[in-house]
Amino acid sequence: METNRNTADNKPNQDSLRKHIREIKERHKLPSPPVIVTKVMNMLKDPNFNVRELSRVISDDLSLASRALSMSRSPRYAQRFQPQTVHESILVLGLQTLRNIVIASAAESFLTRKNLRKNLISETLWVHSLAAALAARIIAKRLRYADPELAFLAGLLHDVGEMVLFNSDPRGFEKAIEDVRQSKQSIIKKEAELYGFDHAAVGVALLDFWNIDEEINEAVLIHHRGADNSAGTLASIIDMADYLCVHADLGFFGEFPDPGREMLSACGCADEESLPPLVQELRDAFDQETLLFREA
Ligand SMILES: [Fe+2]
Ligand SMILES: [Fe+2]
Q1: CA distance 38 to 119
Q2: What is the arithmetic mean of pLDDT over 198-206?
Q3: What are phi and psi of 185, to 5 degrees?
Q4: Nearest 5 degrees, angle CA 257-CA 258-CA 263?
């Protein structure tokens, strides 16, 4: 295990990361980002962008438009008059939340694509990603982390590299998961042996290609360092989210996370009795979320 801590002065080496990303892009056929993601991200980076134009782009995407509207009407934003148009809903939500909605919906469509091979691996990966996102949000709130929604996105995307590996080698990857389960070997080591890179590095290459978010990329890259990630960082939140998923039996994916004592006590789980309520909170959040999907 690497011993680097992801403190401000010891972030992943950017040069070697760039080199890895280039190599992964050459080796794996990474899927292009959804057009809407590219459009919205480019607009938000443009200093001359205007909200009306952004509203038009969002309105053209039915599912995004209805997400933005229903979120802006939720009690969380407590509006006296409910937004009636996408433009009004963007004004209520703000650009950061809108960006998060766009990324979350792209992640969801990539992880649940209809044309993807549906099997136990892809279904388990979706359950795990959604559960990790919800767990990361719960933990972030518990820790008073500055941006719980960023933690939600990082949780949702942390294992996206698994889907890339599975898509490029379905049989081989399925067998690797099975081997790891039986031998209790580390999935990270197995992937590196088989494909040259593990799912954390492959995931970052995809997120970089999709131009998602630097902070998420860094956390995804080191999310298997467990106790070596400083407690309270985004990477440690993902480690803890993985740990809760294993205990809640929500999409165990051949990972044996260990967030370390420091992070466990920061989350109020220093002893065994304090873990079950947090696990239950995750199960309840997951049931609630999947109920919404069924109603949609
Ligand atoms: Fe992972
Ligand atoms: Fe995971």
Answers
A1: 29
A2: 92
A3: -75, 165
A4: 125
| Ion ligand 2, residues whose Cβ is below 5 A away | 159, 242
| CA geometry: angle 203, 206, 212, nearest 5 deg | 100
Ion ligand 1: residues, Cβ under 5 Å: 159
Residue 225 has pLDDT above 80, yes or no: yes
pLDDT tens-digit map of 11-46: 556 666 677 777 887 777 788 888 888 899 889 888
The pTM assigned to this predicted structure is 0.86
Task: Give the ligand whose atoms come closest to the C-alpha of residue 165.
Answer: 1
Tokens of 221: 């890259």
- Model confidence at 10, in pLDDT bands (50, 70, 90)? very low
CA–centroid distance, 39 to ligand 1, in Å, is 29
Q: Relative to the alpha carbon of 135, which ligand is closest?
A: 2
Helix axes 120-142, 160-168, angle to 10 degrees: 170
Report the separation in Å between the CA atom of 38 and the middle of ligand 1, taken as the mean of its atom positions: 25
How many whole angstroms separate alpha carbon 159 and alpha carbon 110?
12
